[in-house]
Structures are given as structure tokens and as C-alpha cells.
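Ticket #4471: structure output looks truncated?

Reporter: J.K.
Steps to reproduce: submitted the chain below (391 residues) through the standard prediction queue, then opened the result file.
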Amino acid sequence: MLVVGAGVGGISIARGLLRDGHDVTVFEQRPEVRAGGGAVTIWSNGDVVLRQLGVDMDGAGQELSTVRVMTSTGRPMTTLDVTAIVNRMGAQVRMVPRRILLERLLEGFPAERVRCSTQVIGVATSGRGVRLDFADGSCADGDLVIGADGLHSRVREIVGAPHAEPTGWCSWQGLATLPDGADRHVAFVIVGDHGNLGLWPAGETEVQWWFDLPWSRDFVRPDRPIEVIRANFTGWSELVDRVLATLTDDDLARSPYPHFRHPIPGPGHGAVTLLGDAAHTMPPTLAQGTNQALLDTMVLCKAIAGANGDVTGALRWYEKTRRRRVAAVSRAASLQVSHGEAVLRPAALVPDRVMTWTLATFLRAVSHRRIAAGISRDLVSRLADRDEHAR
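Returned output as attached by the reporter:
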């Protein structure tokens, strides 16, 4: 089995397939496996999959207890009780730097299963399987190909799935030192008329910060981006001002990151499918991108385990099973959250417990709870049988 892309999604599906006894090779176009960007939120639905994959997340990042949402003028909108969500979902919620998540996924993963500096230029299917063609003239044959190569997926382009479209927004983001006195378990989202921001503790002394502003294809990067960020967000809160005071243009060097949204592709063809951002890039509003890639992994592993020789049928079942739920998450993540104070004021009238219940219910509804429970039971039974044979 051939996986294109050695990011979180690619290593996750490769790890799951190896767990299930399959022969897997991962192809990465970069010269080394590394994670870009800042931190990601692992919600309870993603944490369940990581546990199924045997990934030890103890001590990684920062477990969260509360998310406070307010307006730029300081008006509280809602306070999400993350602890209540954890109790209802049965798994933790944490913010973790992407580099640490990838390191944990790679623990115990056989290095020889990853081939770097291999740029895919073609995919050919036949009655015997599928072949990847690389820029250096080499190729690889397998039973199936999983495109997990991100937003600018070469596999998605080759199979003819629609391109991602910009949403009109972008994020300036990164990691900084958590200010003294800040609560390490509380995350903040602040929404204004023409932008929004987030400050989420990411473990030890780190905090993930982002500043969202409008973006268009004719965007011209300012010479001093920190001045633009400070002009838009200074005064939104004392904590924000303390973070802004520490940032420089160097911290913004890799930003901004435009927000894109993929149309969810229809049924694929042959022994090729897509996973993670290659299948459904979405804005970061709900912090669900990584979690949806992990849910893809869970459902795809189940599909392949039950293939009974019908690989293409298994891939079409995976795509159909995921399509409706991931489309709902993508739609919700694409809702514009920056509005005037008058528009946002009604949100503050909804009790916090109702907002918390609504989010938890939504996460449960899109997380394939029955599939997750079945896989977890099977893994427990498998481990028990292995321990019994070892005695």
C-alpha cells in the first residue's frame, strides 16, 4: 500500500495500516520528515484515534479546561466548558505543537517505511493495482494509493478533484512564550468587526497565537507586518497586548496562511483515494483539520480491514462514509465569525452550558462513534489474545 505525504495524516494512516498487518510505504517529496506551522488542537474525537493507533500523548502539549470567547471590546460571548466536553466524549482535549504531534506519531514507526525526496508526477491504475511515477524516473507498484499530501495535493490534482477556493481570510500565526500569570488551561478567542484572534496555551511555556484578517488574491505583503497586526489588534485585551509586545517581523516571516476550502470530492475511481487536507482542506475556525484527518484514518483502516479483496469497493465505502460528516464540519468551519458588536450581542444571551452542549453534540454527531467504539473493542480483544498467547 502506497501513501503519498509524510505529514500527520500520512503517518497516521500508515501507522494504522501497519498495525493491521499491511505492507505500507510512505513517499515524501521533501528531503526529511518534518512538521511545519505552530500548534494544533486535538479534540476528543481525534484523541480517540490516536489512542487506537497506540500513540502516547501523555505530557504532550497542554490539556485545556476552558475556552473563553469575547468581543474586541471585552464583552463576553460564551465560555465553553471543555472539561464537560471531555467527560461527555470520554477523551481529552489538548493543544499540542505540530512538531511534537508528528514526533509522537513517529515513535516506534519503522524509518525504512518512509522514502523522502520522492516527488510524485503520475498515478496509473490497472487491473493489477496502481503505480506511482516519480520525478526521478523511478516508480512504485501497490494495491492502492492514498493521497495524504496536503492542501496542494499532487494526487488530488492527478485524479481531477476540484481545486480549493480561498475564503477571503488569512491567519498570521506562530508560537510565543506564554506570558507570566496566564492560565495554562484556558484558551481565548476574541472576535472583532474586521478580524479575530486566538491565544491557546500549547504546553510548557508556549502559546499558540493567531490573528485573522481579510485576504484576497491580489494581497501584497507589507514590509512591516508586525505594524499591521498591532494596528488592528492592540487594545483588544491586556493579554493580547503582552503577546503583541513580544512579537517581531521575524515571528511573522512565514505568515500569512490564506484560508482555503476544498469542495468535498465525489466518489473516486480505481484504487486511489484522498485523506486529510488533500481531501477536505477547511478553514481553521473550529480547529478540526487534524482531527478530521485522524477520523479519515480510522474509517479508512476499517474499510480496508473489511475489503475481502475488493479494494476499490472499500475505498468507495470509506469516501461515502466520511463525505456527509466532513462536509458538515467544513461548512461550520467556513462560517464568518467577524461581525459588528450588534450582530454578535445575541450570542451572549445563549447560556454557556447550552453552547457547550451544542459543541459536544456536534462533535459526537460527526465522529463515527459506533465505528470508533467497535474498533476500540477489537483492539482491546486483540491485545488480550496476544497477551494470552505470550503466557
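Triage note (M.O.): checked the attachment and the full C-alpha cell line is present. The mean pLDDT is 91.
Status: closed, working as intended.
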